[in-house]
Amino acid sequence: MMRSDPRALQLNEHGQLKHFLTLDGLDKTILTEILDRAESFLSMGEQSVKKVPLLRGKTVVNLFFENSTRTRTTFELAAKRLSADVINLNIETSATSKGESLLDTLKNLEAMQSDMFIVRHSDSGAPHFIAEHCTPNVAIINAGDGRHAHPTQAMLDMLTIRRHKGTFDGLKVAIVGDILHSRVARSQLHALTTLGVDEVRLVGPKTLVPEFFTEMGATICHDLEAGLKDVDVVVMLRLQKERMKGALLPSEGEFYRLYGLTEESLSWAKPDAIVMHPGPINRGVEISSEVADGERSVILNQVTNGIAVRMAVLSMAMSGQLQSSEVQTAGDE
Where is carbamoyl phosphate bound in this sequence (predicted)? Predict the structure, then answer.
């Protein structure tokens, strides 16, 4: 389904974001700009009036073909704090076939003169498809598509790492769990390598950590102790049982015994290592409650940072669309 070069599709004539679909192809300058802008929004949460007028008069549509209360809520909060009008649409996909049904939905929403679609879909490439076929000057934000990408989650994770570690230089990061089915892991890998960490280790059983990830710059580890040895950041992923086909795991108990993050296994990482998880957490499956709620856990910080990162992405994409529109208008005169 992904026909267009992601960089060409996402950037306007000035190299600014106009869609946010994937981190693949975006350079360090753009990722750093997102993080810097998000930093500027973080203090808003402490203010009595949590709004700025950057998207005043704009209509943002949360177009979720796949359920996710947490992601939808943070996008809604981000848009509202930017003063946008927000429409939430939860669409059942049992009878949805990509192509005609997506286009029909798109045409109806465009008729409402929407300015931005935030799209979550179980099929990889759906946000790209919409970006290729939507009316010009409508921004498309990927809120997660199939196994492909979850770029705003990866960027809120990058902000969390930067705020706790100060820099990406020299860091060793372990991502542990169901890598095979994880769009978060793919986006994190793109972000971490682009921002210049020293090493990204993908840790888990052979059935859930395919060797082809080495082509994306990762180190593969099938032993937890080797994977966590002296790392600065540990990212735990949940087992996505809803996406699994066949016997990829002997049991949840066996997975926890071999790859669960406990106080004992966390001791293999550096003493100041932080623990992250994109949520939802399965306690006693991939992580113990002691670690999830412990002093090295920054999981709740990730949630807070998510609103600021999504505010940054929404404001940058809308600005990029407006700049692109001005170029088109000048060309038509």
Answer: 70-71, 120, 150, 153, 279-280
Secondary structure (3-state) at 320: helix
148 is in an annotated binding site: no
CATH superfamily of 151-301: Aspartate/ornithine carbamoyltransferase (3.40.50.1370)
**One fold for 6-149+304-332 and 151-301:** yes
| Tens digit of pLDDT at every position of the chain (333 positions) | 444 576 789 999 999 999 999 999 999 999 999 999 999 999 887 788 889 999 999 999 999 988 888 899 999 999 999 999 999 886 764 345 445 577 787 888 888 889 999 999 988 999 999 999 888 889 999 999 988 999 999 999 999 999 999 999 999 999 999 999 899 999 999 999 999 999 999 999 999 998 999 999 999 999 999 999 999 999 999 987 554 454 556 688 889 999 999 999 999 999 999 999 998 899 999 999 999 999 999 999 999 999 999 999 999 999 999 887 665 544 555
Angle at 89 between CA 104 and CA 97, to 5 degrees: 40
229 CB-side CA count, 13 A:
7
pTM of the complete model: 0.91
- On whether 310 is known to bind a ligand per the annotation, the reply is no
Query: What CATH class has 6-149+304-332?
Result: alpha beta
280 is in an annotated binding site: yes
- 47 carries a ligand binding annotation: no
| Alpha-carbon radius of gyration of the chain | 20
